[in-house]
Specification:
Layout lengths: L24 E6 L12 E4 L5 E6 L9 E4 L9 E6 L2 E6 L6 E3 L2 E2 L10 E3 L4 E4 L14 E7 L9 H12 L26 E3 L5 E3 H11 L2 E3 L6 E3 L6
Parallel strand pairs: 3-4
Antiparallel strand pairs: 1-2, 1-11, 3-5, 5-6, 6-9, 7-8, 7-10, 10-11, 12-13, 14-15
Amino acid sequence: MSNETSALPAESSAPQQPQEDQGPAIRIVPHIDGPRSLHFDIIEREVPEGELIKIGRFTDKTLAPNRVTFKSKVVSRGHAEIWTEGGKFYIRDTKSSSGTFLNHVRLSAPSAESKPFELNDGDVVQLGVDYQGGTEEIYRCVKMRIELNRSWQRQANPFSLNALKQFKQLTSPEALRQQTTDCCICLCGIGPCQALFLAPCCHIFHYKCIRPLLVNHHPGFLCPLCRSFADLEAQID
């Protein structure tokens, strides 16, 4: 991996919506790129200016509201920090030994503090590198996707309400005469009498098409269309 100290923002495929009276908020989800990706619970925080989120390895003494910890031995106890300034999010490496990577670019040399780097929606952050090939979960690096100010996606919005309406209409007597949408995986039409999967982001797929993604990374689900991540075993509220 490169030791350059500049990074390009990752492209976000999630639709953008105007924010209304919402303070800076961050959602940290697992970045799934293989069978050995480390899974962790989704982390959601509001980050007002002046508040610092400290990221590091989990220990019994690190339980605090402003700390985000991971059960991985390749993560330093004080690995990195995230904060907001002028409505923008920033990250820096705080002298970690195994490195912090932003979109595959290392932020600083080992045991050296980095300068601040701006975070963008959809960025991929990696803490450390796999040790011994990551065969044991405790020696895997932490790869996470950053979602910024997207709370509107997890609330009722025009898109989700319309998707649910279309889903219900597939069971109506008129369904066979109505024009159907397409499954974005096989590009075939979605219609009645088919086994379907309605994702938490409200995109609809044929169950046969989406099943490999459901099985390989359960309970984590990364939508192949909008790239939003969800925990399929999260409580229904």
